[in-house]
Amino acid sequence: MTKSELIQRIAELNPHLYHRDVDRIVSTIFDEIAEALARGDRVELRGFGAFSVKQRDSRIGRNPRTGEAVPVAAKAVPFFKTGKQLRERLNVD
Amino acid sequence: MSGQTLTRADLSEAVYQEVGLSRNESAELVEAVLDEMADALVKGEMVKISSFGTFSVREKGQRIGRNPKTGEEVPILPRRVLVFRASHVLKKRINGE
């Protein structure tokens, strides 16, 4: 499922809304999550999962082709932890 | 550095501010988006959100784990786990680039 398929699906479930508005709604949701993470905040969506940002220290990396040591700067990486309910739904037999 | 936690209520509020819907309907739409994504993932589908990231389901085989408290060996049954891979755009945004 792509973002446009998701928008299409939500539009089908809400025939009273303009497609353009559904597009804005879906975009706003992901934009809001991204913006929160950029501020270093957490986003917790019970049942679905939680997004957070983890800090990685700078380190000495290595170019795997040449073996040459290269400095890798400290960085922040996004992290997602699946919510309990969704994790259980993925494993119902 | 991490201070606040955003929840569904914050997402609904953002939708409410962005589109002229009621607060109630904004909340329902946030829920609908999460539900549709979850349903697709449960079906084993990938969910690809451009500029944000990709959620995919990975099948894990059985392995032998250990109870860290007792040291006892216990089988970890085969299961499906959800993996999120952030897009380059999101990674850059988080690093203020």
From TrEMBL, chain A:
GO terms for biological process: DNA recombination; regulation of DNA-templated transcription; regulation of translation. GO terms for molecular function: DNA binding; structural constituent of chromatin. Keywords: DNA recombination, DNA-binding, Transcription, Transcription regulation, Translation regulation. Pfam families: Bac_DNA_binding. InterPro entries: Hist_DNA-bd (IPR000119), Histone-like_DNA-bd_CS (IPR020816), IHF-like_DNA-bd_dom_sf (IPR010992), IHF_beta (IPR005685). This protein is one of the two subunits of integration host factor, a specific DNA-binding protein that functions in genetic recombination as well as in transcriptional and translational control. PANTHER family: DNA-BINDING PROTEIN HU, INTEGRATION HOST FACTOR SUBUNIT BETA. This is Integration host factor subunit beta. It comes from Tistlia consotensis USBA 355. The gene is ihfB.
UniProtKB/TrEMBL annotation, chain B:
GO terms for cellular component: cytosol. HAMAP family: IHF_alpha. Belongs to the bacterial histone-like protein family. Keywords: DNA recombination, DNA-binding, Transcription, Transcription regulation, Translation regulation. One of its GO terms (molecular function) is structural constituent of chromatin. The gene is ihfA. Gene3D superfamilies: IHF-like DNA-binding proteins (4.10.520.10). It comes from Tistlia consotensis USBA 355. This is Integration host factor subunit alpha. This protein is one of the two subunits of integration host factor, a specific DNA-binding protein that functions in genetic recombination as well as in transcriptional and translational control. Pfam families: Bac_DNA_binding. GO terms for biological process: DNA recombination; positive regulation of metabolic process; regulation of DNA-templated transcription; regulation of translation. Heterodimer of an alpha and a beta chain.
